[in-house]
Design brief:
Blueprint (H helix, E strand, L loop, with lengths): L11 H16 L3 H16 L8 H24 L1 H24 L3 H19 L1 H7 L6 H26 L8 H14 L25 H4 L3 H30 L4 H16 L2 H11 L1 H20 L4 H27 L7 H28 L5 H10 L1 H17 L5
Helix pairs in contact: 1-6, 1-7, 2-7, 3-4, 3-5, 3-15, 4-5, 4-8, 6-7, 7-11, 7-12, 7-14, 10-11, 10-13, 10-14, 10-15, 10-16, 10-17, 11-14, 12-13, 12-14, 13-14, 13-16, 13-17, 15-16
Length: 407
């Protein structure tokens, strides 16, 4: 057993931080599947053109992308707790604004609420980084993995809350968004139990500078970690967004599509219980490579046919590939920068990642509905689109592995 004096990851404070963040991921994080389940339906109800139905979802991701840089700076200067409180404030305001937009039948107001929800989504993305702040080097990938595993609970809680709150009000979905406001207000109390020190300041209260963003992007390990995170997350979003359209379009029931997506979400988060242990044993490069390989396997299975088992297997592989690729890339990034650079590099990473996810969410519908004139052709186009990006990430990983070790 590891000596608790030598290994700070075994200290009560470090473990408490991980448990608080796991709870936040499970409870506060449940609002994201709730909103993603109904966002497109609400958008379809309000939008002047049916083609704009998924625009609210894209604006959530866009909001996360544009929020990440300044939110990371806030956390660097004032601490994680302040940043996470800002996230729950954004989530509350976003849900309240969206509910008002539904109540007055305004698509524009609903879109504003969607963008504000992106502030919470951005803050949630930093839970995994915060888990590593007080962890030892050996415990760090496990801490990240445990927090990501909290997403399994949110994936189970969120859809059940949708069923319970869907018909609470005369105007559809208003009760659901009111519930999201309550989740943010009550869940914010979790962060009172965090014990993560603010980064140390030097003379005159200034922070150590570290490398600039330009200099950070010259670090091969940082660049490759960001590329692999972008590809893993964006490709998962690209295929997952199109899946319900493809399943229903091929003649299967909507409930069947929901079952396939549920299997996918379980595959995304269940491995998190042991991904950190695999990273600690085999290293980040090998685990990220495994994730990219599994993502490629998902595309191959999807291209082999549109039978029910193809959809199930492809989406399960898609979830597994995302888990290994994204968590592995996160751990790789975490080991490539100093404490002084933490806010800068993490904000840059999440801005780039969610920027790619925004593009993927917009491109998914276009590829599915505007490629070849049939459902099967559209589904094939979505999966074929994975090839160049997997080649980019795989090539970058190989290049990093073949570089001579720095002195």
């Amino acid at each position: 057993m590891v000596d608790t004096v030598q290994d700070p990851a075994e200290s009560p404070s470090a473990w408490r931080n991980v448990m608080v963040l796991v709870a936040a991921q499970a409870i506060l994080g449940s609002q994201m599947p709730m909103i993603f389940v109904v966002g497109g339906l609400a958008g379809q109800m309000l939008a002047p053109n049916a083609c704009l139905a998924t625009l609210p979802i894209s604006l959530i991701v866009f909001g996360s992308m544009t929020t990440a840089p300044w939110l990371s700076t806030v956390m660097q200067r004032y601490g994680r707790r302040v940043g996470f409180f800002a996230g729950t404030l954004g989530g509350s305001l976003g849900a309240a604004t969206a509910a008002y937009g539904l109540w007055v039948d305004s698509f524009l107001i609903f879109l504003v609420g969607s963008y504000l929800t992106g502030i919470y989504m951005s803050a949630q993305g930093f839970y995994r980084f915060a888990a590593a702040d007080t962890a030892s080097e050996s415990f760090r990938p496990k801490a990240i993995s445990y927090v990501m595993a909290g997403g399994l609970a949110s994936a189970l809680i969120g859809p059940q809350l949708v069923k319970l709150t869907n018909d609470l009000t005369v105007v559809p979905f208003v009760g659901l968004y009111a519930t999201v406001v309550a989740i943010n207000v009550l869940g914010a109390a979790l962060f009172l139990f965090l014990d993560i020190p603010r980064p140390e300041r030097v003379a005159h209260g200034t922070l150590p500078e570290g490398r600039s963003r330009g200099e950070l992007l010259k670090d091969p390990k940082i660049v490759v970690a960001i590329i692999c995170a972008m590809v893993s997350y964006a490709l998962m979003n690209l295929v997952m967004t199109s899946t319900p359209l493809a399943v229903v379009g091929c003649g299967y029931e909507q409930d069947t599509a929901a079952d396939i997506v549920s299997a996918h979400v379980l595959a995304m988060f269940i491995p998190s219980f042991f991904t950190g242990h695999l990273i600690a044993r085999f290293g980040t490069t090998r685990i990220v490579a495994l994730g990219l390989f599994i993502l490629a396997g998902a595309g191959i299975v999807a291209l082999m046919g549109v039978d029910l088992q193809n959809f199930f297997i492809a989406l399960i592989l898609l979830g597994l590939g995302w888990n290994f690729g994204f968590i592995g890339a996160t751990a790789m990034l975490q080991s490539a920068h100093s404490l002084a650079e933490r806010g800068r590099v993490q904000g840059l990473n999440d801005a780039l990642v969610f920027g790619c996810v925004t593009v993927a969410s917009l491109a998914s519908g276009g590829l599915m509905n505007c490629s070849g004139g049939s459902v099967t052709a559209g589904w094939a186009a979505v999966n074929m689109a994975m090839i160049p990006f997997l080649a980019l990430a795989g090539g970058a990983l190989i290049w990093l592995a073949l570089r001579p070790a720095e002195e």
